[in-house]
Amino acid sequence: VFRIQSPNNLQTDMGKEFFNKDVEKVTKKYNVNHYNTYSEKKASIVERVNRTLKNFMWKEFNFQGHYKWVDLLPDIVNTYNNTKHRTIGMKPSEVGKKHEKMLLDTVYNRIKRVDLKNQKFKVGDHVRISKLRGVFDKKYNANWSTEIFTIAKVSLTNPTTYILKDATNQEIKGGFYTEQLQKVKFPDVYLVEKVIKKNKNMVFVKWLGFNSSHN
Predict the structure, then answer these.
(1) Where in the chain is the domain with CATH 2.30.30?
(2) 129: which residues sit within 8 A by CB, 6+ positions away?
(3) What SUPFAM superfamilies is this protein classified in (predicted)?
(4) Fold designation for 122-215
(5) Which of 64, 67, 91 minimizes the C-alpha distance to 79?
């Protein structure tokens, strides 16, 4: 695929089929920015289509009075494919090979304009990272990381993602969405989680919310 045309950016999940030495070798060869977002969002385009199909389904459920979606699906997909798509300005059934470049330019330029307009953070801003909530997380637990990071790079992906670095200037793997970040002021005081050892007038501690590399 890359021999014909290579992308500037390639977003995947953290699967080993994507993050391995062979893929890294190819992305470096073709100068492709391969990244992941450490996000709960997955296959957003597919999820958007599924949501649209579900909306069609519920209308039919109410009209037909039953929930046999398998029987309804062919007609629903046909309706979707013959409905004008807001983003591309055409019906999916009308799109052919000859439209590829025109649609790519239309969609990409639209995305680029939106991204440039809606960048919430800039390089140098200090932020906290949203904590991913599990099923058993207690609601009163903090939603944001104690550790503070700095925006190192703004990536013009869709949507915009941000590359972060920690207090030691080490870049954090993956990119982060706007919704996963909270802008904060850099603190002058840090909380101590535990004292590791004492030596006369000095104390070696572990800081609350930071890993052991910051001790």
Answers:
(1) 122-215
(2) 144, 145, 147, 149, 164, 176, 180, 181
(3) Ribonuclease H-like
(4) SH3 type barrels. (2.30.30)
(5) 91
